[in-house]
Specification:
The chain has nine helices and no strands. It is an all-alpha fold.
């Protein structure tokens, strides 16, 4: 979710809302606002439901195409957009984005632990791949939200995160040590990966999530 692009889209919709009221303008604003809401809050959010419900109640009171219906609908949509804009400018969007990212990563950790509870090498191997993916995804999302830059190679990205001071002290050495785990797991070198190493990577990722994504 690019906050700058999102703000630009909201501003554009708000500017359009000052045009002469029409059913075409209402529909354009409505679907544009739904798109913004889904990008910000996810599908079927409470904000989206509230707007839909309000507009449905207006349509129950006023006949289709009625000028007052169109004006009040546009006013409600404009209010929703203004609320989103205020949240963006207050920094709430950045917090929301971080929280949602943390929730997704936590779900991956839970899935990995569930797989690891099963017996046998197959479960261990699958869990190692999931843990390696969670480790890399966490570092890339951490670099993104902390604006540390981007890099194709995870080792280079980790250096950028370290140089930005996001990871400090022992965290840096631990993260660097897990680069080899990540490579072994993702290249199916199963005989070089064991359950304790998977648990160790998961514990580290959880620590990073708790520190930076909650």
């Amino acid at each position: 979710m690019d906050i700058t692009l999102l703000k630009s889209r909201v501003d554009s919709l708000l500017n359009s809302s000052s045009q002469t009221s029409s059913i075409e303008l209402q529909n354009a604003l409505y679907f544009g606002t739904l798109s913004v809401m889904q990008a910000v809050y996810g599908s079927n959010s409470s904000q989206e439901r509230d707007l839909r419900t309000y507009l449905e109640r207006l349509r129950e009171k006023l006949p289709p195409g009625n000028s007052l219906l169109i004006q009040q609908s546009i006013s409600a949509i404009k209010g929703a957009l203004s609320s989103i804009k205020a949240e963006i400018e207050s920094g709430f969007m950045g917090t929301l984005r971080t929280t949602l990212t943390g929730e997704v990563l936590t779900d991956i950790i839970k899935l990995t632990r569930a797989v690891l509870e099963e017996k046998g090498d197959d479960a261990k191997n699958v869990a190692s791949v999931l843990a390696a993916a969670a480790f890399e995804d966490t570092l890339r999302k951490l670099a993104d939200i902390k604006k540390c830059g981007d890099a194709d190679k995870l080792a280079d990205l980790l250096t950028q995160i370290k140089d930005a001071g996001v990871l400090q002290g022992a965290e840096v050495g631990i993260a660097q040590s897990y680069l080899s785990f990540r490579n072994r797991a993702l290249h199916a070198k199963w005989n070089e990966v064991d359950r304790p190493s998977v648990e160790s990577v998961l514990a580290f990722v959880e620590q990073i999530i708790l520190k930076h994504f909650t």
